Amino acid sequence: MKTPLTGILPVAPTPFFDDGTVDHDGMRRVIDCMIDQGVDAICILANYSEQFLLSDEERLALMRVSLEHAGGRVPVIVTISHFSTDVVVARARAAQAMGAAMVMMMPPYHGVGLVPAEEGVFEHFKAVSDAITIPIMVQDAPLSGCQMSVPLLVRMARELEQVSYFKMEMPFAADKLAALIEAGGADILGPFDGEEAVTLLADLDAGCTGTMTSALLPEHIRPIVIDYRAGDTDAALAQWTRCLPLINHENRQCGLRASKTVMKAGGVIRSDHVRHPLKPLSPRTRDRLLQLAEELDLIALRWGK
């Protein structure tokens, strides 16, 4: 990439048939829908893609289908997180070979009782940085249980050639983003927020240059980032306020099921199935989700009709 990625880089859901098998044609339709939503890039195989419920074979096939179908229309970011350093290196090389523009990875973790020391985390990212020539986005999220300090993140940005993007989605993310940007300076090429944009305004105030949300409403969230970075903070606040009921409902009630439910209702995918032990939305939560989606006239809700 010749210029840094900014804007909105949403996570693509992984569509399944009702029997739980992967729907590759549905994956292609998801990619097409997201491009029509006006996204700046697409992230695949992330936690919101149910990556932890995919076999290695399914993961490889989905990566190939997604990258081939995107066909360079937008950059594709491939999530490669795994506890094993050998596995993330192999995943990173495969992603680059297939045409990924970037990889994203969490620190190695396997429950709160099995988290490496900081030097182990650094070496984990270093192994990937040494193996590829595309950027790495560091995902700093509570899910890992691994506390990465600002000094560690800055060291990674300065000493590891490919580490230049950061997705910050822990509590009080804005404070950590501000500290990271101040300490890291020009080495922090892409400070991003996550968490479905529920803290986006605070994170923009702190200096983030983009957001990685779900695929639910990127066409409505992207203008918040664009307006804010253009200096129109009033317009950004007004748009964020307009979106906040749906953002909050997704973040607090639906999780990764929201975009799948709306995409099924909009004819993008045939099923909103989530793999066990995840459970489908309750009718109560689903009804409120679709009501809020209709009020914003989401592209995903009418794309396939």
UniProtKB/TrEMBL annotation:
<dbReference type="GO" id="GO:0008840">
    <property type="term" value="F:4-hydroxy-tetrahydrodipicolinate synthase activity"/>
</dbReference>
<dbReference type="Pfam" id="PF00701">
    <property type="entry name" value="DHDPS"/>
</dbReference>
<feature type="binding site">
    <location>
        <position position="212"/>
    </location>
    <ligand>
        <name>pyruvate</name>
    </ligand>
</feature>
<keyword id="KW-0456">Lyase</keyword>
<comment type="similarity">
    <text>Belongs to the DapA family.</text>
</comment>
<dbReference type="GO" id="GO:0005829">
    <property type="term" value="C:cytosol"/>
</dbReference>
<dbReference type="InterPro" id="IPR013785">
    <property type="entry name" value="Aldolase_TIM"/>
</dbReference>
<dbReference type="InterPro" id="IPR002220">
    <property type="entry name" value="DapA-like"/>
</dbReference>
<protein>
    <submittedName>
        <fullName>Dihydrodipicolinate synthase/N-acetylneuraminate lyase</fullName>
    </submittedName>
</protein>
